[in-house]
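A.,

Following up on our hallway conversation. Structure tokens first:
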């Protein structure tokens, strides 16, 4: 179905698209999100993305104020770094990326910018490998402060789309799982080009939309409020080539997104070869991506229906329920399952960052709110269900009946 886009195609700036799926959400007020989002494919180049009426400025403000990637619970209060069980896989991913980059770019004297550095694990890994000239850039002041405090590297608070004039050029600019979050993708790649010296390198890594269906655990997990661009490797390569970068190496890999679940990603290293390119993206559509997304939508719909049937059976005759977990899956099942008809008396989350936020008209509370209650608790996560159950029954000592989705 043809659609006049609210947001121009992030690759080619086309204004016409085809609807692939409409995703409904219970609204988290602080995120400035829509309750309904169309996932579309550009009619010109085939890029898949969330068609949302927002700006990069608004998105930067959201990450500055509510970034989950600035989670300081990753670290202890002193100089010693402590890694909780739920963070190990992400640390391993970033350390592996640093080791790969170190093996490909043999000079540890290169000046490196990690754009979207979060709390600095990637930079810390490079520092441990002997790299000396390291800079982190992130819109969250909590993230940059933590990066400097824990890893002892220079940081700048801000957006790499509009960095400080005196930040200079870099031999290597890295964006690991950043580009999928940005409204202004072309502006981002132009920003990378300006920050990368002629002859320097750019490393990019993003989720692999062509393989979403192969790693399906939670329905429409990848159609969420944060990942608004859905790349395939051919489209990512065309984008970089359009802005004057030549491919050095690229490929696909599988990374961990929880203790027990994997996730598809694509990556590449490109060298800046052109001084002033004319950024025109090839209009050759990636038909394989469209087929893969169609399969993902079909399988996700089937899985969501199974979750709905489970909830209906487990909560039959029960009007009052509690939701544990204020993540992306909760936003969907509160809107698209039998939970929309229930009286959700509380939404609980163990993260202090989410407590106090407003989800579906309810204030997200701390676990202590459930003391002396006997409401059934729906565990609104699949990826982290085991850890949540252990927290509920162990650390918090609650005896409420638990309803699991998978």
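Then the amino acids I'd put at each of the 406 positions:
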């Amino acid at each position: 179905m043809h659609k006049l886009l609210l947001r121009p195609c992030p690759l080619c700036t086309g204004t016409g698209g085809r609807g692939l799926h409409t995703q409904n959400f219970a609204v988290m007020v602080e995120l400035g999100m829509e309750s309904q989002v169309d996932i579309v494919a550009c009619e010109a180049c085939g890029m898949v993305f969330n068609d949302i009426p927002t700006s990069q400025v608004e998105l930067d403000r959201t990450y500055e104020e509510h970034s989950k990637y600035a989670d300081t619970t990753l670290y202890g209060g002193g100089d010693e770094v402590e890694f909780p069980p739920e963070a190990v896989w992400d640390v391993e991913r970033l350390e592996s990326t640093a080791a790969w980059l170190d093996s490909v770019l043999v000079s540890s004297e290169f000046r490196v910018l990690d754009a979207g550095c979060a709390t600095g694990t990637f930079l810390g890994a490079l520092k441990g490998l002997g790299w000396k000239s390291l800079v982190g850039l992130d819109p969250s002041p909590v993230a940059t402060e933590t990066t400097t405090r824990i890893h002892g590297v220079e940081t700048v608070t801000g957006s790499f789309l509009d960095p400080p004039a005196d930040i200079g050029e870099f031999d290597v600019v890295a964006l690991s799982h950043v580009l999928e979050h940005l409204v202004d993708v072309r502006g981002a790649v132009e920003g990378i080009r300006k920050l990368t010296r002629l002859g320097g390198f750019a490393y990019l890594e993003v989720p692999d939309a062509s393989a979403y269906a192969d790693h399906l655990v939670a329905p429409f997990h990848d159609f969420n409020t944060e990942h608004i661009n859905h790349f395939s490797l051919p489209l990512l390569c065309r984008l970089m080539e359009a802005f004057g970068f030549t491919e050095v190496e690229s490929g696909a890999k599988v990374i961990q997104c929880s203790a027990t679940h994997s996730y598809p990603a694509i990556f590449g290293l490109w060298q800046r070869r052109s001084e002033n390119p004319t950024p025109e993206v090839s209009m050759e559509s990636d038909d394989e991506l469209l087929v893969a997304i169609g399969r993902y939508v079909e399988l996700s719909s089937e899985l969501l229906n199974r979750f709905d049937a489970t909830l209906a059976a487990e909560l039959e005759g029960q009007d009052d329920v509690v939701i544990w977990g204020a993540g992306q899956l909760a936003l969907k099942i509160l809107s698209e399952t039998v939970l929309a008809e229930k009286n959700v008396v509380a939404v609980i989350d163990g993260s202090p960052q989410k407590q106090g936020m407003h989800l579906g008209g309810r204030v997200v509370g701390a676990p202590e709110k459930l003391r002396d209650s006997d409401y059934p608790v729906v565990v609104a996560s699949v990826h982290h269900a085991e850890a949540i159950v252990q927290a509920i029954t162990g650390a918090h000592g609650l005896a409420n009946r638990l309803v699991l989705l998978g």
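The radius of gyration is 22 Å. Curious whether your intuition agrees with the design.

B.
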